Amino acid sequence: MADEIQAITGDEPSEPAAPPPPKVTSRYDRSIVEGPLGPAVWKNAWPAVLTSAIGGFQGIIDHALVGNLVGFKGNAAIGVSIQLWIAVIVFISSIFIGMSVLVARFAGAGDEEKVNRTVYQAFLTAIFMSFGILAPVGYFAAPYLLDLVNAAPEVKAEALPFLRIMYVFSGGMLIFFMLGGALRSAGDARTPMVLGIAMTVLNLIFNIILIRGLGPIPAFGTVGSAMGTSIASGLVALFALWRLWKGGWVVSFPRGGSYAPDWSIIRKLFKFGLPAGIQGIAMNVGGVLMLAFIGSLAESAAAQAAFAVSYNQLFSLITWTSVGLMGATAAVAGQNIGAGHPERANAVVNVAAKFGIIGAAFLGFFFFFFPAQLLGIFNMTDPAVVSVGTDLLRILSVSGFFITVALTYTGGLQGTGDTKGPLYISIVSQVIVPLSICFVIQQVGTLQPMHIWLAILAGHITRCVMSIIRFRQGKWRSIVVNIEPTDA
């Protein structure tokens, strides 16, 4: 038929059309750097937010079990111990911030080899710091840390074994944090959500059994909560390591080549991560010192219990969901910088902040109007505890707006490589401002719980304002992120 048409028209036969160039495929989600920003942020944010919320509910259930089976002294013990545990664990986890900066940039540029090398080196560093430093130092330092925060004798008795278990067996949790950060930075937020839900369910099952006892298993009380957390995170970590080695996820361990430490990459992990680690330490040292102020109050046990439940648990429904938004903002902003789209990175924080404000408003409504009912979930019926807890929850209903905006802007800064800015901001807002307020009031008068709660609010407002100013300065646009190629 083609020959007949050519004979009629007199056209010379033409060369067959060249096939279209093959479409370049990538294992990374390109909608993050090419599609609408709102869906891109939400796609990465909602799994992280859901994971954080479920984790927060798991902590609430632990506190409720301990509160009903042990009493509010058990709640105080968990609250004090978790604050001390986080103060140390956050420094080691800082290398995952550095890892996330690198992974997001390389995923945005489509460089799979650099992504996987970075993840493996972050794993090696985390394992060494967990078992070589955190476990031995944390075990022996635990009683001195509890003395530092003026833990009441009955609280210290419950807290010491809990804290030691958390320090010694934190390796599984660190691997989970590493994997979640790597997957989210590479654009896969659903896998860490599934793993987080699995870990939460396991944690809940183990805690119900170990806190209250079941059959031949005795009731371990407060210590059972730490045991359940360690066992659940360890099981999930073992599965994650198997999958990273086997492959199939958007990130994996590199196959072939050397498996020895690569000091050029490790230095980059600390270059970008260490400021975040110092930031975390500053924030949590501020929290520990704030606990010392709470411990100096006339009714310290009641105030510590109210703080443990209201701030560490109920307010975590805002902070942990905001941390999910922070991670999503960091991943999307970092990938767009890696893909050469700085204006998209600039717009990401505003989109994420709007999501955060909606969540803070929803939870803040319950904090403000139903504080006694929320405290009652934890068997917090002592009049002194209910009084200070109600005041704190109402302050936190306002504070939530400021902290969620601050965290989304922090994500924008960290994701683009500016990890020093949030460090300076945290030192001022989480340490200098609230502690100075408490110190001055203590020197000139009598420090009351409401003074401490208002100091916390002042710190959150300061952090929000400073984070917005820092991001809008735009210094992150000139930050270069790269690692050396392999010799192969």
The number of helices is 18
The coarse overall form would be globular
- Tell me about the largest β-sheet: none
Determine the strand fraction and express it as a percent band: under 5%
Structural class: mainly alpha
Textual characterization of the structure:
The structure is a single chain. The chain is built from 18 helices and no strands. The protein has helices at 2-9, 31-34, 37-69, 72-92, 94-108, 112-148, 153-168, 171-185, 190-212, 222-246, 263-295, 300-314, 316-338, 342-369, 371-376, 383-415, 420-444, 449-473. It is 79% helix and 0% strand. Helix 4 packs across helix 12 and helix 5 runs parallel beside helix 13. The chain has one domain (37-474). The protein has 488 residues and is an all-alpha fold.
Task: Offer a quick outline of the entry.
The protein has 488 residues and is mostly helical.
Any descriptors?
488 residues; mainly alpha; 18 helices; 79% helix; 0% strand; disordered N terminus
Task: Describe the SSE topology.
Layout: H1 2-9, H2 31-34, H3 37-69, H4 72-92, H5 94-108, H6 112-148, H7 153-168, H8 171-185, H9 190-212, H10 222-246, H11 263-295, H12 300-314, H13 316-338, H14 342-369, H15 371-376, H16 383-415, H17 420-444, H18 449-473
